[in-house]
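Box 4.2: Ligand-aware structure prediction
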Amino acid sequence: MYISHIALDDFRSYHHQVIECDPGVNVFIGANGQGKTNIVEALVYISTLSSHRFSKGSALIRQGGNAGVIRVRCVDKERTFTLDLEIFSGQANRARHNSTVLSPMNIIGEVPTVIFSPEDIDLIRGERKKRRKFLDTLLIQLRPSMARVFQEYNKILHQRAAALKNASTVQYAGVPYDENSLNIWDAQLAQQAAKIISERSKLIHKMRPWLEHYYMILAGEDKKARIDYSVSTDTGAFKLPSIEKIEASDELRAAIDEHENELFDVAVLETNIRQMLKEIRPKEVERGVNLRGPHRDDLVFSLGTMPVYGYASHGESWSFALALRLASLEILREENGSDPILILDDVFAELDAYRRACLTDIIARNEQVFITAAVGDDLPDSLDGKKFSVTLGNVSLISPDDK
Ligand SMILES: Nc1ncnc2c1ncn2[C@@H]1O[C@H](COP(=O)(O)OP(=O)(O)OP(=O)(O)O)[C@@H](O)[C@H]1O
Ligand SMILES: [Mg+2]
């Protein structure tokens, strides 16, 4: 599948812009702050309903505008379709597939994308929520119904936090709190948490061989790159490693491989999570907050027997982040039977000649790729494709004679 047209109205720095794209490579070149990332951010947003950089919904709307609109026309084999997303401030987005109005959540997965950007260093060095976002964004592209599970889970968390706070106040006043009401919240939390942990674990399992494969290619050395799920929840039969414990060797890995499928089973997880919530009830009531659950979980990255966090060099960290994105690309391709759109936002300047060459090979094999760069010189010479110049929120085609 490829995008043949992008139209932006009042999105970020764009008032009204239509871009005609080619299958294959599309490159946006322009000085800093001219609006290159804004274009690819629009693609990520219409693909996943989230941005690869931090932003409040309102920042996506052009300053002074009422609503931002992203519209893409896609060509998928014989089929052509249009997706529209209207973004409002403080109000729900609106979406259309061709001219049919649908819930914005239903457009997730229609245009699969994978983006690699400078922000990805945060996958390695940033807070755990960045890693969860990486995994969950991929997960909802693969299983769009999971977007509703996350929504439901967050709603339950919010309401359960209020119930715990209330129980805490009541207990502090020396009155017994309502155990039954908390039991109901525990059951609801466990049900959604089990689905999330199970889907995340299965995805990690699929990702592992691809991560190892791409890290080996990019870093050109035989340290094994590995990803594990680290649960804040003690799932009962088996506890996954926390970051500190990952240093402990191959036996730990063998134990994970042997027991990991316990994390795939929703029914087992649900029972274990309910049990765990029962055990920590006194602590949660004392503190009046949700202490455990997939909203606190993390991903653990390692190279050989060392954790990446705190040990890997700058170059190793970049290779690891890129390998994670390339693994995502392979998984989306495997599941959808076609290439996701690959987006490389300002990343060539960070890569050495060898890794640029690796990436150039991957680009050549993908059906459609969007690339941004501040300086054309950062791009590999062998990179062909349609080139656009971006200046002050205006996109124009660079004719081959101007190159
Ligand atoms: N809601 C908005 N309304 C108007 N302008 C905006 C809005 N959000 C961002 N901008 C402007 O968009 C510009 C940034 O665009 P973008 O991030 O696409 O730049 P870039 O070309 O990718 O730059 P760099 O090379 O530095 O990454 C900034 O000048 C910023 O002020
Ligand atoms: Mg940029």
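In the box above, the bound molecule is magnesium ion. Residues 2-112+340-402 form a domain with the Rossmann fold fold (CATH 3.40.50.300).
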